Amino acid sequence: MEVRCVTCNADLSTVKDSLIFKCPECGEETINRCGKCRKSAKLWKCKNCGFEGP
Ligand SMILES: [Zn+2]
Ligand SMILES: [Zn+2]
What we know:
By secondary structure, this protein is mostly beta strands. It has one helix at residues 35-39; strands at 19-22, 30-33, 44-45, 52-53. Strand 3 and strand 4 (52-53) form a beta hairpin.
């Protein structure tokens, strides 16, 4: 199964230091972030509750 970055849509398996975590606000949506977006501190948005985090 492909897991894609919520910000740039990159395939997480191809990017180093990628991270998958639950939304800290609602705890329900899974947030996938690739290493590139983590490094550049791009914002992500939770599809479930609309929370935005760096
Ligand atoms: Zn990304
Ligand atoms: Zn959320």
